[in-house]
Design goal:
The chain folds into 2 domains: about 130 residues, Neuraminidase; about 90 residues, Thrombin, subunit H (Beta Barrel). The protein is mainly β. A 4-stranded antiparallel sheet has the order 1-2-3-4, with no helix packed on it.
């Protein structure tokens, strides 16, 4: 804590497709078993792994030719990846190139067995997959082995009512099944208790802007062990900052 400068741990050699480069990375997770970073290298259409040991000059490709956007890993080290062009989420064993479809995979659409541009993923201890179904403006829950999903947030068309979302992105689900989602174009973070028909605004929701109580296209979120909420406020066009909130 207290650092004023960050440290480059992957990439940093300009945008490109060499093994020492990244281009438009959208998500990252830490694989504790190998002490490495697994990164969705979006524009390059690949998932890469970078050792966290200092002095690692380049990454290695885990999965190639995939339009990845979001990543998650469960407690058995299965890797979950969303594919925004195939409109599906697949589960992979590390080293497996093909994977198994666990959400979507029935083409682009708004039916319960379909997704439309799935972005971020959260996987719980029961291997339930939650996915932000971006262009359907909803969050879907796919139980392990299910043939279709359940709408657990949004799904009432694009809009800014408490029953609606607008291009949702970052996602977190707590042990009670409460969903936290970055509601990108509504410039707010929403909380949806399990089974609720509408959410509540827990951060932002004061229009697009750069004040401390505002966002401009929030895309990512996470919590620390003290319950503080961290929000990535903005992508290419946004506020280009990370904000921290204390959530009751």
């Amino acid at each position: 804590m207290g650092d004023t400068n960050g440290q480059v741990v992957a990439g940093g050699n300009g945008k490109g497709n060499r093994l020492d480069q990244l281009y438009g990375p959208t998500d990252v997770l830490i694989d504790k078993e190998t002490d490495s970073l697994i990164i969705c290298d979006w524009v390059n259409g690949r998932v890469v792994q970078w050792s966290r040991r200092s002095g690692t000059p380049q990454g290695e490709v885990l999965i190639d030719s995939i339009n990845c956007y979001g990543l998650a890993m469960d407690n058995q080290r299965y890797l979950y990846i969303s594919d925004i062009h195939k409109h599906e989420v697949r589960r992979y064993q590390i080293g497996d190139k093909n994977g198994t479809i666990v959400a979507g995979g029935n083409g682009e659409g708004a039916s319960l067995n379909q997704l439309n541009y799935p972005t971020y993923i959260f996987v719980d201890q029961q291997q339930t997959v939650y996915v932000t179904d971006n262009d359907n403006h909803r969050v879907m829950k796919w139980n392990k082995g299910a043939k279709e999903g359940i709408v657990v947030a949004g799904g009432q068309g694009e809009g800014n009512a408490l029953t609606q979302l607008s291009y949702p992105k970052g996602l977190f689900v707590d042990t009670l099944g409460t969903i936290y989602v970055a509601d990108k174009l509504n410039h707010r973070v929403m909380r949806w208790p399990k089974g609720a028909k509408q959410g509540t605004v827990i951060a932002g929701g004061n229009g697009e802007g750069k004040e401390a109580n505002q966002f401009y296209s929030p895309v990512g979120l996470s919590f620390d062990r003290h319950g503080n909420l961290y929000v990535v406020d903005g992508d290419v066009l946004g506020n280009n900052r990370v904000q921290r909130f204390s959530i009751e």
